[in-house]
Amino acid sequence: MANYYNDIKEIKFELENSPLMQRIVELKERSFEDKDQYDEAPQDYADAMDSYDRVLDVVGNIVANVVAPNAEAVDAEGPHCEGGRVRYASKTYENLDAMNHAGLNGMTMPRRYGGLNLPVTVYTAANEIVSAGDAGFENIWSLQDCIETLYCFGNEEQREKYIPRVCKGETMSMDLTEPDAGSDLQSVMLKATYDEENQCWRLNGSKRFITNGDSDIHLVLARSEAGTRDGRGLSMFIYDKRDGGVDVRRIENKLGIHGSPTCELVYKNAKCELCGDRKLGLIKYVMSLMNGARLGIAAQSVGLSQAAYNEAVAYALDRKQFGKAIIEFPAVAEMISNIKARLDAGRALLYQTARYVDIYKALEDISRDRKLEADERAELKQYSRLADAFTPLAKGMNSEYANQNGYDCIQVHGGSGFMLEYACQRIYRDARITSIYEGTTQLQTVAAIRYVTNGFYSQVIGEYAQQPVSAELETTKAQVKTMAEKFDACTAAVKEAGDQDLLDLCARHLYEMAADVIMCYLLMQNATKSPELFAESLRNYVRLAESEIEKHNCWIRNTLKG
After folding, report:
1. 285, 307 Cβ separation under 8 angstroms
2. pTM over 0.85
3. 3-state secondary structure labels for all residues of 241-261
4. Any residues with CB less than 8 A from the CB of 38 and at least 6 apart, and which?
């Protein structure tokens, strides 16, 4: 592929064809107040969009010419643990150098700290592009997004100290999980004590499954309140590797994402700084950190689905059987069209989520400098709720689709797909973690189910249903309306039973029904605007979603019967 951005027209469509982008740019650029202070700051909306396009063109070029060609070598070599430190695979350093020389760090950070001040939506596109080239490398590069939490909750001295370093290419990690505290972060026991003599905090204990665990700057969840055992005793800390005190005990031997070191860390009286207020580490700061990470995994998943599609199409066009390319056989063509349908539907959900996140985060940032007007406060509340409701859908569904698409990509390859010399096996292995880390799909269901039971998803679906579609899609719209009615009926039936255990049992089914209907409407809007890009995917996705909705409908109805 010549360019992983310009060659994928659907990404550019998502950036250019939403009515929300004008508002996003206006808020992010604060009515273009930087234009007279920074040469690189855009003058107006058109200039901003052109700037985003140029940045992503650079990302796409680097991925096509450096990251993707290095992916197999990085996967084979992997990182090493030497003397308590991580040494990346040799080609990973080439990838990092290319990104650093292009200035692709601190992407969402304000220009005053050396950042690019890009919207989350544009950064999401960059994440997708990098992931399509090498999902393991994306794990290292994209963790720059941890700086968003420090920017939001750290003090100005900390911002000035750490953000410019990340903008210049220093790496980050979020040190949350421990051997006895995986998804249950309330059980974190890494001890933080205040050193009165040296006027600093100290960390002692261990962390496990830490992505890029030997990074330059760490955000660490630790127990600051002696005698506590729940989330109210946890605080967030900033650890700087320059200060020493943390060693890598080992690097995990993983199924996939080999380029990304997953570390077990040992803290030995490590000096650190408190980030924000005590006791809010889990309750407030980790929730913010995790929502950003989940959007990142959704983007990674879409990138992996794109990679699976690329490999499946290339192989099916090249491989001849019985005198013709296997893409001409209906069974193979169906698999590839389903990969594309899930990819386009999942991408539509990803970028809609990113746009919602952009608006609420930009307004939240403005509120730190001035009091919001009444209409702005209402807008912040609206988009914060939309972002919170859509993030678990985007992460859960896209990660499941990445797994399915990786599986189908191998199936298209037949016996060759089981051989290590084909990229499809790496894509399949890399995809497997996406539905596990940063909250399993089951936990995404837990996060989303209240938006099922309180009617919020149904409200959003109703609003989407009011949007006009092309005349050619009226029949499709009626199909999706029927699917939405089945979702509403199943939700009502489960709620009427008044049984929490039953709700828990049905939650995943209701979650997927809501997501399927929402993705159908989003893809329908895309097909209305650009039928040449999306009409076929819409037809195929509605066919898939309709069968899934009916499956869930039957399952819930039969379960209610006992």
Report:
1. no
2. yes
3. HHHCCEEEEEECCCCCCCCCC
4. 111
